[in-house]
Amino acid sequence: MKTFAEFGLEPKVLQAITELGFEEATPIQEQSIPLALTGSDLIGQAQTGTGKTAAFGIPLISKINREDEKILALIMAPTRELAIQVSEEIGKLSRFKGLRSLAIYGGQDIGRQIRGLKKKPQIIIGTPGRLLDHINRKTIRLDDVQTVVLDEADEMLDMGFMEDIQTILKLVPVERQTMLFSATMPPNIQRLAQQFLNNPQHVSVIPKQISAPLIDQAYVEVPERQKFEALSRLIDMESPELAIVFGRTKRRVDELAEALQKRGYSADGLHGDLSQNQRDAVMRKFRDGSIDVLVATDVAARGLDVSGVTHVINFDLPQDPESYVHRIGRTGRAGKEGTAWSFVTPREIDHLHLIERVTRHRITRKPLPTMAEAIEGKQRVTAERLLEVVESGELNEYKGISIQLLEQYDSVQLLSAAMKLLTGDKKDSAIELTPEDPIRAKRRGGKNDIRSGRKPNGGYGGNRGTSGGSGSGGGYRGNRDNNGGGSRGGYSSGGSNYGSGSGGYGGGYKGNRDGAPAARDGGANRSAERKPYTRPSSTSTRPAKREDFDN
Ligand SMILES: Nc1ncnc2c1ncn2[C@@H]1O[C@H](COP(=O)(O)OP(=O)(O)OP(=O)(O)O)[C@@H](O)[C@H]1O
Ligand SMILES: [Mg+2]
Hints:
Elements (H helix, E strand, L loop, with lengths): L10 H9 L7 H11 L4 E5 L5 H11 L10 E4 L3 H14 L7 E4 L5 H9 L4 E4 L1 H10 L9 E5 L1 H6 L3 H9 L6 E6 L6 H8 L4 E5 L9 E7 L5 H12 L3 E5 L3 H13 L4 E4 L5 H12 L5 E4 L12 E6 L6 H8 L9 E7 L4 H11 L4 E2 L5 H22 L3 H13 L2 H13 L83 H8 L37
Parallel strand pairs: 1-6, 1-7, 2-4, 2-5, 3-4, 5-6, 8-13, 8-14, 9-11, 9-12, 10-11, 12-13
Helix pairs in contact: 2-3, 3-4, 6-8, 10-15, 13-14
The chain binds adenosine-5'-triphosphate and magnesium ion.
């Protein structure tokens, strides 16, 4: 392990790194930083929570002069929350150097962003849609950009941002450094890389498993209708410090958050139909611990870094293995341990096996927590809370009444009553969630899948590309879209090299995704939010809708 001092960084950047508490570079940082400092293009892949942000952030910051008043670096990220978070980390890393950075994302008042831009930030961190908005309004010019980073590049492609990214990158001088980072690198990323990177160096830190090593992964088989009961028992049994519960759709998230609140949990929901103010408020509450369960769609799956997340619970299995890897990667970050649980309905067992195959990790089957375990867990937490108060010692006001009570009642009985009160059982409230259809497993090539990016063995394409019409679609990814019709290349490329002949990312791609291409980014003039959620009918070709993407 290297210390940051060994990279020859300027003192002000080193000071910021020290201030952040980073002592040694993580493996991806150790490999990327020296390469990136030479100006080389880079494709960086490393497990979730291993410091990719600083891996591109530190070299990017090192290149910029404080006196410059132009936009010199552009970082793109798939979701608003991630753009905000990356911008905060960049802000911290460049603090002592005195650089200016600004987050640009949909849903925020554009006037405010324009005012921010007038302060001449050198670094812009944004979601593609809103960035384009500014470009079209001429409030952002990219003529001087020297460094471009695509964080979670594969997700941005998956969300249908290819066109936007292409448009944006064409406005950036060719003479630039481009870096692309993610924990997963599906082969389709090669297409983007070929187009926009110049002789990129691949830096990958991927051991046998792609998911982070410190995450304990388990699943319980549970029928759809018992999931909520299972969830509340699980939370009681495990008493997470902070937990993220992933639901498949926005409606699911709303219902779940409400149900949890009804049962007395401190929970709230996050998805793309909330206003940006609501989204910000929920994230703030979760980060400061005033709620301890965040219920979210996949909008929270990528990149989010909240310390104290001890548990990730897949209330609904994600459609793709990549998403599984990213979701569970919200815990077990920066060397900490974490636990991931997945609820699997009997009909989804095949899908779970697919996830295991692709991630090359056995997920341990565990029994549904029993009522007794749940009660025990809750009582343990209550007892801990009680003892904390005992230790705090400020109890004099209560001693008089306690002595009186003890004269009349048995001490065990009294304490038990206090415990009962504190434990606050609200089990009686009846909870009914609208059932979700099970996710169906798709066939998918077995080799190298999400960890590849190097070996073009056509794994994704091979046995799947048969149903999709125009040659290359219809594969795993293609089916996920409501009406993919084979028009997008997805992962499959007819069983040969990535990028060859897949031809799927053209015009139809975005439209196919959600039928409202311009609405995704919620830019001011891009219609504030997307169409209302409609439940996919069971006859839909899109078996289970991943949340409408939003950013
Ligand atoms: N060298 C380091 N030492 C200690 N902590 C670090 C170091 N580098 C980064 N971190 C911290 O580790 C956490 C995870 O970093 P980061 O969010 O960059 O991970 P990531 O690799 O981008 O994960 P993901 O794939 O989920 O996006 C952050 O809280 C970050 O501040
Ligand atoms: Mg990241």
